[in-house]
Write a structure and sequence with these properties.
Elements lengths: L24 H5 L3 E8 L2 E7 L8 E7 L6 E4 L17 E4 L2 E5 L6 E5 L3 E4 L7 E9 L4 E8 L9 E8 L5 E5 L4 E7 L6 E6 L10
Antiparallel strand pairs: 1-2, 2-3, 3-4, 5-6, 6-7, 7-8, 9-10, 10-11, 11-12, 13-14
Length: 208
């Protein structure tokens, strides 16, 4: 048996910070990509990042699990993106026949029913952000992380887990007192709630 000979690519030595990479900004930012997949019955909902649209818009789409073409649930100019804890995530939740989502420009929650019917749910005069929503069908409400910024630049944000009634749009605080909250999850019988919480100076991977 002949030995396997692997060719070694030629190497170029360059001064620090001047070497050329095959991974360019254009190659990373030019194509669409999807994340935040959520399954509901026979449909998958997901966020698609579109770098070529204004503000690299995050579009919300859905597709049948057995195939077919995706359809857009939330249309431009809405941008389905949260900035809770600055890096965001968990920007939408499917609640029965509608979708509740965070809009990037004003960080308000909106309710989308059908293709074009979009109405605001939360107030515009309060600097608040929302993420990690789940639907509590028994009580017709969503439970999510809320981040308040009462005095931007003067004090830290106030984080809590709140319930938002979808009939009255009233917000009630379920958990508060710690610096950060994430991932509220309701039990199958809707009687218990689990979540993750942590405090300064920890990051969640240090201690939570």
């Amino acid at each position: 048996m002949k030995p396997l000979i692997l060719s070694t690519p030629s190497r170029v030595v360059s001064p620090y910070g001047t070497w050329e990479s095959s991974v360019t900004a254009a190659s990373v930012g030019s194509g669409n990509h999807v994340f935040e997949l959520k399954l509901l019955d026979d449909e998958v909902y997901f966020v698609e990042v579109r770098p070529k649209e204004a503000k690299a818009r995050y579009a919300l789409e859905r597709v049948k699990v057995d195939g077919g073409e995706p359809s857009e649930v939330v249309h431009s100019p809405f941008n389905v993106r949260s900035t809770v804890h600055e890096y965001g995530g968990g920007a939408f939740v499917v609640a029965g026949n509608r979708v509740i989502f965070s809009n990037f420009d004003d960080q308000k929650l909106y309710s989308a029913t059908g293709g074009t019917s979009v109405v605001p749910l939360t107030r515009g005069d309060v600097d608040s952000r929302f993420a990690d929503g789940i639907f509590d069908a028994q009580r017709n409400r969503i439970i999510c992380v809320r981040e308040l910024h009462p005095e931007r630049g003067k004090r830290e944000a106030i984080n809590s887990i709140v319930a938002i009634d979808l009939d009255t749009v009233n917000e009630s605080v379920l958990l508060s007192g710690n610096d950060f909250y994430a991932f509220p999850r309701i039990s199958p019988d809707a009687r218990k709630l689990a979540w993750i919480t942590w405090n300064f100076p920890n990051m969640p991977f240090d201690g939570s």
